[in-house]
Amino acid sequence: MRVLMKLSQGTSPQGFTLIEVILAMGVLTSTVFIISGLMLRSFLRVQENRDDIEKVFLIKRELYANYFNPPKDNKKNVQKIEEPAITITSKLDEINKKSSLCDLSKNLRIVRSDAIWKMNNNVRESAMVSFIFRPKKEEQKQ
Questions:
Q1: 114 touches 89 (CB < 8 A)
Q2: Is residue 8 part of a domain?
Q3: Conformation bin of residue 120: beta by default, left when phi > 0, alpha when psi is -120 to 50
Q4: How many domains is the chain partitioned into structurally?
Q5: What is the DSSP string of 22-50?
Q6: Is 125 helix (H, G, I), strand (E, B) or coil?
Q7: In a domain? residue 33
Q8: 104, 85, 86: which is closest to 95 by C-alpha?
Q9: Whole-angstrom distance, CA of residue 127 vs CA of residue 116
């Protein structure tokens, strides 16, 4: 009985005040908004990176195709892919005379593949370079 009398007299708190509940709800709401914003940005970044990886795969595929069947000298090979929309330009280049690879210029060529695509109203670009071994003329005759 004494316990009930003390509780009813208001000497011990029976719950939270309205201000405490509103503040707790405000903190909880702002935390949820911040976390959901971070999750959304993370998801969009993952999707963007996935699209970039897909484009890199296409550029590599074109680069490997040029490795086995190089384009003619000083001619650009342009390939347009509709789905996903990307334009890949490949070109066979000579090694620069100032390069430290100049001694190998008789046996090596450079293949450069450049790609351009649009993503979210932004133009994106990527380039890949590879070396192609060119056999000596005596080896070609055999």
A1: yes
A2: no
A3: left
A4: 1
A5: HHHHHHHHHHHHHHHHHHHHHHHHHHHHH
A6: strand
A7: yes
A8: 104
A9: 9
CB 80 within 8 A of CB 56: no
Q: Is residue 122 part of a domain?
A: yes
> Looking at the whole model, is its pTM more than 0.70?
no
Distance between CA 44 and CA 63 in Å, rounded?
A: 29
pLDDT per residue, tens digit, the chain (142 aa), is 455 455 555 555 688 899 999 999 999 999 999 999 999 999 999 998 898 898 888 888 888 887 777 767 667 888 888 877 889 888 887 777 888 888 877 778 888 888 998 887 888 888 888 887 776 655 555 5
State the residue range of the domain holding 36. Answer: 15-141
33: closest CA among 25, 45, 43, 21? 25
Greatest pairwise CA separation for the chain in angstroms: 113
**Geometric angle at alpha carbon 18, from 24 and 28, rounded to 5°:** 15
DSSP 83-116: TTTEEEEEEEEPPPTTSTTGGGTTTEEEEEEEEE
116 is a domain residue: yes
CA distances from 72 to 15, 24, 67, 93 (A): 83, 71, 12, 10
